[in-house]
Amino acid sequence: MQRDLLSYYQEVLDKISTADARTFRKEMRKAFKRLLPEERDQLKTWFRSACVCRVQQGELRPMPLTAGDQLK
Fold it and tell me: What is the Cα 16 distance to its own chain's centre?
C-alpha cells in the first residue's frame, strides 16, 4: 500500500514535534521541497490546527494555540 507524501510528512512532523527545533525545521523544509503547492497549503493548515509546539530559545515546547495565533 502506497502512502501519499502529505500524510507521511504529517506523521513524521507530529512525531518529532517534541524533538529539537533544528530537526523539526529541517524536516519541515524537506516536506515543502517535495510537496506540491496545494499539499503545502494543506500541511500549513494541519500544522496550525494540530501542532501545538512553538520554538522558544532553540527548543520546542508544547503551548496551546489560540484563535489569533499564526504560523510565522
Answer: 9
